[in-house]
Design brief:
The protein is mainly alpha-helical and about 425 residues long. The protein is built from 17 helices and two strands.
Length: about 425
């Protein structure tokens, strides 16, 4: 068996490389699977972005402070971390069928509980269950799509649909609560219906993808199974995994903090009305959606390294625009453009990591990095809420600019690993 030596990867057997990746035309043989995955990411985006416009109503309904309401961002991290521990075992024991069943049922259970507007502690616990589902879906479907030749474009569409969901849900939630004058929890009745569809389409599409199918498609031998231990503690692999993990931690923290606190920022700082302020969150998610879909194709033309560098710097520039422009509508334009260049960073980094690491480690690495990213999506918005409690919500833009600068620094480090892998 041929051995591949690389300064970055160490020694990886040929079994790690896996079979040739499928082409665009291969999607014709499994459209239901691709559509099911896309629907899942649409639902995940809608769920994650709904917090923003509903935060003022959570506060008044449960009579809680900024700090306590921020637990809504913090609780899913427990679910994400639990998913990271189990995701490789679920893949090898139950196959992609198991991933599809578990994540869709977790989403359904969460939305049913929230729609019943339970006591606040039960609400927080239910969102942790949703975090398990999202963590499994994140790792499983990102790794699966990355196994295809046109991964930049396909991931761009997949994460773009996450942005579509994130763009629509603030609009729907805002219209229901501020215009139709219905209670906030009625929004989750709609999410429950969407989750029922998710359960049906995911289980139906992936029912034939059991453990044997997964192991054959990934060309996994017993002695070369991807494992969490290898990607977290084995030196060459761990450097890539931890860099990616911290990148996603900051990225998802920015995304959810902006989506969650922009409405409150616009209302408190720019004195916008609830509807106009809600449109700021919609504009941010619209920017993310368009950026992922459009720039996914641009990335394939420019090359991964140059594209990510441009997007990272543009995110910082428009972050300053969001902070310094005094007019409400100018700030909405700036935050939309910030989302446009921020959006493609997630799928682009995932593609970079799969170019560096051997194929059998993709699920474990992406699962762990997504779990840490989920921590960012919980902890960083929680930090915004905690700081805003004493300093005011106007700390949001400089906080985001600092995080965006951290993203750029991490990318410079990861790009060196990419060059090393490409030269070896």
């Amino acid at each position: 068996m041929t051995t591949i030596e690389s300064p970055l990867l160490g020694s990886a057997s040929g079994a790690d490389v896996g079979p040739l990746t499928p082409k665009w035309v291969d999607l014709q043989s499994k459209p239901s699977k691709v559509l099911a995955v896309y629907w899942t990411f649409l639902i995940m985006g809608a769920s994650d972005a709904a917090y923003g416009p509903l935060i003022p109503y959570f506060e008044s309904y449960y009579d809680i402070s900024y700090t306590v309401v921020s637990l809504l961002f913090l609780s899913p991290v427990c679910g994400y971390m639990f998913a990271a521990l189990l995701n490789n075992d679920i893949h090898t024991r139950l196959g992609r069928r198991g991933i599809a069943c578990i994540h869709s049922v977790c989403h359904l259970l969460t939305f049913v509980v929230v729609s019943l507007h339970p006591p606040y502690p039960a609400l927080v616990i239910s969102l942790a269950i949703g975090g398990v589902g999202s963590g499994l879906a994140d790792s499983g479907w990102n790794a699966w799509i990355c196994g295809m030749t046109n991964s930049n474009e396909l991931l761009g569409i997949m994460h773009g649909l996450y942005g579509v969901g994130a763009m629509i849900s603030p609009l729907v939630a805002t219209l229901l609560v501020s215009k139709a004058n219905v209670p906030w929890f009625r929004f989750y009745n709609i999410m429950t219906v969407c989750a029922v569809i998710e359960v049906v389409v995911c289980i139906t599409a992936f029912w034939d993808s059991g453990p044997d199918d997964f192991q054959m498609s990934e060309n996994i031998e017993e002695s070369h199974r991807g494992s969490l231990q290898r990607v977290v503690f084995h030196g060459p692999y761990a450097r890539v995994t931890w860099t990616c993990a911290f990148f996603l931690l900051i990225y998802m923290g920015i995304e959810v903090a902006m989506g969650g606190w922009t409405v409150t920022y616009m209302m408190k700082v720019h004195h916008g009305n609830p509807f106009a302020s809600g449109m700021a969150a919609t504009g941010f998610w619209l920017g993310i959606t368009c950026g992922r879909i459009i720039l996914g194709f641009v990335t394939a033309k420019l090359g991964q390294a140059l594209a990510i560098t441009i997007y990272s710097l543009a995110t910082i520039v428009f972050g300053f625009g969001f902070w310094l422009l005094p007019n409400l509508y100018a700030a909405i334009v700036a935050v939309s453009l910030q989302g446009f260049f921020l959006g493609p960073l997630f799928p682009s980094i995932i593609v970079v990591v799969t170019k560096i690491l051997p194929r059998t480690l993709h699920v474990s690495c992406i699962g762990f990095a997504s779990a840490v990213g989920g921590a960012g999506a919980a902890v960083l918005p929680f930090m915004v809420g905690a700081i805003a409690q004493t300093k005011g919500v106007e700390i949001l833009p400089p906080f985001i600019i600092g995080l965006s600068t951290g993203l750029f620094v991490l990318w410079l480090y990861l790009s060196r690993m990419l060059r090393t892998a490409e030269e070896s």
